[in-house]
Amino acid sequence: MYHQIGMWDQKWVIGNWKMNGRLQNNNALMHRFRIMPTAERVLIGLAAPTVYLLQLHNAMQIVLNNRILTCAQDVSRFPNNGAYTGEVSAEMLADIGTDIVLIGHSERSLYFGEKNEIQRRKMENVLNVGLIPLLCVGESLEEREAGKEHEVIAHQLSVLHGLNTKNIAVAYEPVWAIGTGKVATVEQIADMHAFIYKEILSLCGSDVKIRVLYGGSVKADNAADCEDVGC
């Protein structure tokens, strides 16, 4: 497993493929990274579907010798191995060179009913095998309009309490901005990022290293705005 030096001091940019990809198309895309300029201040990760993670890892780390991290979109809540048909354990993800694991994405909650208890178990499994969990949090449009965004995010962040780690990565992804074309304002993002930092320090102590990302209809023409809010 590869980790860049100073990764907790870098900006993080992670692309989530969701349920997309084909072997041939993946290869064509990944070979385009050969011409990508080096950016030492930026950590780049790609979250591919599980069936393509080994392809991604081999292409980036072995063939292209590129410092792009391999990210999984999900992991089993069950530790180790066992009779859990269709599940992929944290140990398996580590075995194929995964670096980061997304946990708690709103689509997992929406379509699969995953809540805090399951997310907590997944985070513990990921940490136990030496991988980095990236916890996704975010409020719905109804919750924001009701002024409950801080309350909702605080509840989602509560899964961090008591975790055996001093490195915390959280992606703030307002549900109302995912795949809708809507983008939170710089002021809204800055407010939520400041709140998330404060909550993490309260839950995990003042000596933790924290990375907070923003996700929600981010494109090349609006990504630069996040630079001003510490994404």
UniProtKB/TrEMBL annotation:
It holds the Pfam family TIM. SUPFAM superfamilies: Triosephosphate isomerase (TIM). The keyword Cytoplasm applies. It catalyses: D-glyceraldehyde 3-phosphate = dihydroxyacetone phosphate. GO terms for cellular component: cytosol. GO terms for biological process: gluconeogenesis; glyceraldehyde-3-phosphate biosynthetic process; glycerol catabolic process; glycolytic process. Belongs to the triosephosphate isomerase family. This is Triosephosphate isomerase. It comes from Neisseria sicca.
